[in-house]
Amino acid sequence: MRRYDHILFDLDGTLADTPDFHCKVFIDYFTECGKVFDPDKITNGLQKTLSIRDVLRDAGVKDEEEEEEVFRYLRRFYGTGADDMIGRIRLADGARETLGALHKEGYGMALISNSMQELLERMVVVLGLQDYFFELEGAKEEQAEKLERFRALLERNEINPGRVLYVGDTNGDMKVAHTLGCDACFANTDIAWAQDKEAVIRTHKPEYVIGSIGELLEILA
Asked: Top EC class per UniProt (predicted)?
């Protein structure tokens, strides 16, 4: 009997190399609007995997009206104008082949990401990954925190967390997995967003540490 029924994944920094994409979207918006902002705060906020609202506040967006203006722009851009940029995103080495193999083996797979829901849905299509996942759980304005979205996905699909492996690349990913009773796999790769990878491993003691996504197949064999 195999150990897991479901393999759930983070996207940014785990399956896809996305920091340049995210930074450019925010910087282009602020530049086009003529708004004063600190690009380093945007970059640092994304690297710390802050919520979108926190990134905006760090960048100088202080009131709800301006915040909603940014969200309207992002929803519109992600839905209609981001395909060319998304198409240039690099997938982690071996990601497509690994997802295909896991899907063929019958594992249930889903994405749980801090990227906005509209962007997550578009990225999966443009990158050609739509056939692998039974659900995409991105950030929403009314439910931004990954922990609660992860919990809701498990409950909605009646998934036993004890038979779930969550693959992520940050301190937050490992913490969320263990908080909910799932096993954690730390993707210690060249595209990971964690700023101190060794600290993540020491602090959270994930059940598995992989140097490439393809190593998942060895773990699950």
From this structure: hydrolase
Residue 51 in contact with residue 170, Cβ under 8 Å?
no
pTM score of the predicted model = 0.91
Q: Report pLDDT digits (tens) over 19-55.
A: 889 888 888 887 887 776 666 776 666 666 556 777 7
**Backbone phi, then psi, for 15, in 5-degree steps?**
-100, -20
Per-residue pLDDT tens over the stretch 132-168: 999 999 988 766 688 999 999 999 999 999 999 999 9
DSSP assignment of 13-25, as one string? Answer: TTTEE-HHHHHHH
Phi, psi of 139 (to 5 degrees): -70, 140
Burial class (CB in 10 A: 0-12, 13-18, 19+), 94: middle
Specify the DSSP class assigned to residue 161: G
How is residue 62 written in tokens?
A: 């202080």
DSSP conformation class of 33: T
Residue 18 near residue 49 (C-beta atoms within 8 A): no
162: helix, coil or strand? helix
- Per DSSP, 163 falls in state G
Query: Which CATH topology does 6-17+90-220 take?
Result: Rossmann fold (3.40.50)
